[in-house]
Amino acid sequence: MADLRDVTPEQTKERVIEELQKIYDPELPVDIYNLGLIYDVDCHKDEVSKLNKCKIIMTLTSATCSMSEVIVDLVKSIPSRMDGDLLDMDVELVFDPPWDQSKMSDEAKLAMGML
């Protein structure tokens, strides 16, 4: 078994993105990553534990989104699904810049019938 301290921040970022792509906005048929709700995923090594930590900056389709707590809680729970190679994850919810449809991936636009 590999030492979890050997997992690079880049590998952790890829796994976090895979997990984000499993979280769907309950009101739309698209995951939050391809929907464009994730503005940044920044991962780095913790200097003490040598395990990876990540910070996610994200938004919602609307500041009044009725499912905001559910979506944010699902994002915050990602470390529990990553077999211990992610020590901690900070989630920052922002509304500037506001989300709009231009932030969606082509895959998301296709799923929503916009292409």
Quick overview:
This protein is an alpha+beta fold.
- CATH class, named Alpha Beta
CATH architecture: 2-Layer Sandwich
List the secondary-structure elements in sequence, H or E: HEEHEH
Tell me how many strands there are.
3
**Tally of helical runs:** 3
CATH fold label = GMP Synthetase, Chain A, domain 3
Structure description:
The protein is of the alpha+beta class and 115 residues long. It has one domain: 2-Layer Sandwich (GMP Synthetase, Chain A, domain 3). The protein is built from three helices and three strands. The chain has helices at residues 9-20, 68-76, 106-111; strands at 38-45, 52-58, 86-93. The protein has a three-stranded mixed beta sheet, covered by helices on one side. Strand 2 (52-58), helix 2 and strand 3 form a beta-alpha-beta unit. The chain starts with 8 loop residues before the first helix and ends with a helix.
